[in-house]
Design a protein that fits this description.
Strand content: 35-45%
Number of helices: 3
Largest sheet: 8 strands, antiparallel, barrel
Shape: globular
Order of helices and strands: HEHEEEEEEEEHEEEEE
Strand order of the largest sheet: 2-4-5-6-7-10-11-13
Distance between the termini: 16 Å
Helix content: 10-25%
Number of strands: 14
Structural class: alpha+beta
Radius of gyration: 16 Å
Length: 193
């Protein structure tokens, strides 16, 4: 969700999408991403063939939507983080509170659950989102002329946050996107959701 994008944006600012050939996704199209178990690879690089983070949207049995994101904090030690939150969908926009209190955060260090890494990521996210803690954060996804690419607009209480906007390459759980670490290192591995 947009709040999840904020952590990646805090690590490296993304450029705003050029909306010339784009149109906003409808509610049905956004729900289709959940039904198809689409994986959104944030800021795909053709040169390094990797992503900053991966996202998925799923619909729980009670009808609520959950958006989850995964990123690699570092390779040495290998710190992998998954963040999930409930979101609402209205007029094609995924929205949630800017507060980080209800985020589900799980971090592993070298493949083992790590309370220390989880608390560190929670503190970083809380600091990055402090000015938006009382805001409604919304993400509007846009289809492009490339069916494998999405763009977005992020808002906080309807004010656009271009520094937090990204582009996404679409795949599936079987695509095996590579993740590039937030803290750079040489080693990269494939990640399967």
């Amino acid at each position: 969700m947009s709040r999840l994008s904020c952590l990646a944006a805090a690590a490296s600012l993304a450029t705003a999408p050029a909306l010339a050939q784009e149109r906003p996704l409808t509610d049905e199209e956004v729900l289709g991403l959940a039904r198809e178990e689409a994986v959104w690879c944030e800021n795909w690089s053709d040169q390094t063939r990797d992503c900053e983070s991966l996202y998925m949207l799923r619909q729980a049995p009670d009808g609520t939507l959950v958006q989850s994101g995964m990123f690699l904090m570092s390779d040495a030690p290998a710190i992998r983080v998954i963040v999930a939150e409930r979101v609402s969908l209205t007029n094609g926009r995924l929205c949630s509170s800017g507060s980080t209190e209800e985020l589900n955060i799980q971090a592993t260090m070298d493949g083992q659950p790590s309370l220390e890494a989880t608390l560190m990521v929670r503190a970083l996210l809380t600091e990055a989102m402090a000015e938006f803690a009382d805001a409604q954060i919304c993400q509007q996804l846009f289809a492009t002329d490339d069916p494998q690419r999405l763009e977005e607009i992020i808002t906080a209480d309807e004010e656009r946050l271009t520094d937090f906007e990204s582009s996404y390459r679409l795949g599936t759980v079987d695509t095996g996107f590579l993740l590039r670490p937030v803290i750079e290192d040489e080693d990269q591995g494939q990640v399967h959701l």
